[in-house]
Automatic annotation (TrEMBL):
CDD domains tied to this protein: M48C_Oma1_like (cd07342)
Tagged with keyword Methyltransferase: no
PANTHER family noted in UniProt: METALLOENDOPEPTIDASE OMA1, METALLOENDOPEPTIDASE OMA1, MITOCHONDRIAL
Similarity comment: family membership: Belongs to the peptidase M48 family.
Domain PDZ, first and last residues per copy: 92-126
One cellular-component annotation, GO: membrane
GO terms under biological process: proteolysis involved in protein catabolic process
Protein name as annotated: PDZ domain-containing protein
Taxonomic source organism: Brevundimonas basaltis
Assigned keywords, A-Z: Hydrolase, Metal-binding, Metalloprotease, Protease, Zinc
Lineage start: Bacteria, Pseudomonadati, Pseudomonadota, Alphaproteobacteria, Caulobacterales
Cofactor-binding details, from the entry: Binds 1 zinc ion per subunit.
One annotated GO molecular function: metalloendopeptidase activity
Essential cofactor(s): Zn(2+)
């Protein structure tokens, strides 16, 4: 498992692989996780004014040795200098508060405001709880503003102060799966490794993640702390609007605005959906709450035109 964050965690479970393939697979998953974290941070950072839930974000992506399987852990430790439950920086997106503070990939966080984080016990099985506890300590401090970290870099301990920024308060989780799928549950955004890998560019990835973030902006998904995630039933909306998307069509439109507000190219959306439909029969045809890929592409072409008119007029990109 890798844990990362666009102000909070992205978690990725890494399953066992043949020993000879483990280092290459680990590197590929690390790269994909870092890419998702980078795009998610830009979307979260640029759209804080529109998100119902806000947090103070450092923009980094964190992971720990304890989250990796026994097979992959030695490779992760050797590559990143990880140690037990201590959070290590997997990626530091350009322009993020972590990058501005001078943090670097491979830094290991040892203490927060002089309080040592817990290394935790040696484990054989992969575990999340120890890293989660350390991240909670960091998050509580970031919520109050500037935070001094003590990090280990190349064997030396360095004090670094991070000043977080307001960002959307939703975690983004990358899930190892062969399914081309993404979803939102009111608290998190989920994207499969297959779909993240299918996106050929960061602009296409922003179309996918922007759509899921739009469900949160539009309050289509509700999180109940006692009962978990409750997906809004969209079938009645879909029927009322003639079967052409309903809440999903709303999320397509608003999601493209969110991507454009973060500096991504809205022109990629329609070609992406046509390519997606050509390669996946499940989205090629209309579903209960989803329009066909071609219908979504045509609608997104209109939204792109709308966005470009506002950009040329110097208007604020508010959907």
């Amino acid at each position: 498992m890798i844990l990362a964050g666009c102000g909070g965690p992205i978690s990725t479970a890494i399953t066992d692989a043949p020993r000879s393939a483990a280092p290459l697979r680990l590197a590929a998953l690390n790269a994909l996780d870092a890419r998702v974290a980078r795009v998610a941070f830009r979307l979260s950072d640029a759209n804080a004014a529109l998100c119902p839930a806000i947090r103070q974000s450092a923009g980094w992506a964190l992971h720990a040795a304890s989250q990796y399987s026994e097979e992959l852990r030695p490779y992760a430790q050797a590559r990143f200098g990880l140690d037990g439950d201590l959070p290590g920086l997997l990626t530091v997106p350009a322009g993020s508060p972590a990058a501005i503070a001078g943090l670097q990939e491979g830094d290991l966080v040892l203490a927060v405001n002089g309080r040592a984080l817990a290394r935790g016990p040696d484990r054989r099985e992969a575990a999340f709880e120890g890293l989660a506890a350390n991240i909670a300590v960091i998050d509580r401090s970031l919520a109050n503003g500037s935070t001094q970290l003590t990090v280990r870099r190349n064997g030396a301990e360095i004090p670094i102060t991070v000043t977080p920024r307001r960002a959307c308060g939703y975690e983004v989780q990358l899930n190892p799966s062969d399914e081309l799928n993404a979803r939102a549950d009111g608290r998190r955004l989920f994207i499969s490794t297959a779909l993240a890998g299918f996106a050929e560019t960061d602009d296409e990835l922003a179309v996918i993640l922007g759509h899921e973030l739009a469900h949160h902006v539009l309050r289509h998904r509700v999180w109940n702390e006692s009962g978990g995630a409750a997906r809004r039933e969209n079938e009645s909306v879909w029927r009322a609007e003639g079967g052409e998307g309903g809440a999903e069509q709303q999320a397509d439109r608003v999601g493209l605005y969110l991507a454009a507000r973060a500096g991504y190219d809205p022109a990629v959306a329609a070609p992406f959906w046509r390519r997606f439909g050509a390669s996946n029969w499940r989205v090629r045809f209309p579903q209960i709450v989803h329009a066909s890929a071609e219908s979504r592409a045509r609608s997104l072409e209109a939204v792109r035109h709308e966005i470009e008119l506002k950009q040329r007029a110097g208007e604020n990109l508010v959907p």
